[in-house]
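Sequence in, structure out. First:
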Amino acid sequence: MASRRNRPINLPAPYLKRIWLEPSRITDREAYPFCLPLLGDDFELSFDRAITIIVGENGTGKSTLLEGIAVLAGYDEAGGGKGYMTVDHSWALEKMGGQLSNALRASWLPKITNGWFFRAESFFSVARYLDEMAQKYPSGGGPPPDFLSHSHGEGFLRFFEERCQRQGIFIFDEPESALSPARQIEFLKLMRRMDEIGHCQIIMATHSPVLMAYPSATLLRLTKYRLEPTKVEETDHFRLMREFCEDPAGFVEGAIAGE
């Protein structure tokens, strides 16, 4: 019999309702990541829909914020699911998502620790580990997973198609870096299936106007100092892409000329 802890919970997403900063838990305001202007004493973020998408320029703290949320959910800050410690942490130590999580408080209804934290940088490390474990401990009598036999984008989509039916919280840090434009459309379809199931919460950071246009998602723009609701048409990413599509040659000529 499945333990009570592992039984599905008959409540719809979102499960993580709110996070906020507890200033008393910060030992050094000058140290990263607490020196980020975003992380003022009044920082908080609420989740009122199953899918939340965060957009913003590099350096504003998107990845660090997602790392902190992932650690709160019980995942490794370098990527993976609960209980996975399979990734080289040498690059992740500088980002200190775990340090951020120590100063964050969270409100859950209920607490969910199933799911996955996806990072393009660590996907192949995680996939290699899962392939090795499937070879070592096969189950069900069928062929084991073989994610690495596919291209990066194909392996990524297959990886999550096998997991999207499960209840949990799924955190994606710029998944478009692993996907061609056509594969991004496939990823949108995957998001729709997860959304329709009703028990998957998605928190995603992206630079892709295609992904940030997902209907019914909460779209937040991360500026230097705060998170604010926005529409895809109001983002710099969309405006830049629209200018490019209207006149590709002229756009590129102007960009490289510094105009």
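Second:
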Amino acid sequence: MLPLDTALNDLLNQLSSTLPDAPGLRVFESSFALNDSFDALTWLSSQSAYPQFYWQQRSGSEEAAVLGKAVAFTSLEDAQKFIRQYPDEDLRVWGLNEFDPSRSSLILPRLEWRRNGEDAALRLTLFSENSLRSDREFAKAYIAALKCAKPLPPLQSKMIREEHRPDKEEWCRLIKLATDTISNGKLNKTVLARATDLHFEKPINPASMLNESRKQNLHCYHFYMAFDPDSAFLGSSPERLWRRVGKSLQTEALAGTAANHNDDQEALRLGRWLMSDDKNQRENMLVVKDICQRLEAECEKLEVLPEHILRLRKVQHLRRQIQTSLHKADDTICLYQLQPTAAVAGLPRNAAREFIAEYEPFTREWYAGSAGYLSLKQSEFCVSLRSAKISGNVVRLYAGAGIVPGSDPEAEWIEINNKAAGLKTLLQPEHK
């Protein structure tokens, strides 16, 4: 018998226990034997239930596939309030926060597969405001409707056209407007982004796209949320927003970009240039200082580690990691103090957000928000960069660039092309 079947049968046996005809929450868990035949993303995308959420930590040590919802939340604050009512259940809430952190799509899943290192488990959650006994019957039907995993379809669809918002001419105009605004003292930095709509002959399978990204975009968080059969948001992000274990907090400043190269020596040369380039160093330090200022009232002494190069498939980044201890374990504080960071919005934060809202020719929605989970014990969210929104046969790719004094429109256009290439080349095999 396959490990999944074994775990599901165990959960069904546990459901035979006596449950009250009253409101409540109950969690059932079964250990899951890991083997090479089970791929969580493939299994998840084979199901007909929604929402679906997949997440893999950038080290690869943690992974989750969650299906359906026991409870849904439209803000992280509401999710945190809920799980605090059940401190003994080790509840995890998974999903996305928008660029505007007040809006979220978060779920306490009906079914949750969770792996930490070599240990994995399958969890089933019952929740009802009326009757746990009745919800048990829904849960049994839910398990009965699960489907066997089917191989992911290949990414084979011809691209019909490509549309940039803004196009290059408008982009150059926006960069000039941004640098003028900075020169006038109204901003220190802003981050402008581009949305690229790729139109294909046939619908693109989101899980297939993320699966290819998992193989090629290493050292990244991988996330996928399918809202229904026709719409999903996914990405492979290099940037941690925060990781909290108890009161211990880790975050980082990932800002400053250079191209990568297949030749290690050339990549090293580009990385050395990035480490010594004044514009990129200033951009990174602006982010560091902003993070420290936002957190200083909420934590003990902040420690900023030395900068280093993070080398990815298409680009390299300057990264400085930051760690501290919070006065209290509160993920709402982490979200609102850290998102959006200066690396995805600018400085001062409010002025930069107003500039973006007025001049960017699209709405960011989930782009440059965050993806991950929260629980009472710990939480971790990545910044939802290198991301795509899939609507049927249209794939929208996002990429942004930090604009500071001295930013050159042509160089910034090349930078966002390099960033978008991390996902775009998955859809154009001839360019891999």
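Remark: The domain at 160-431 is CATH 3.60.120.10 (Anthranilate synthase).
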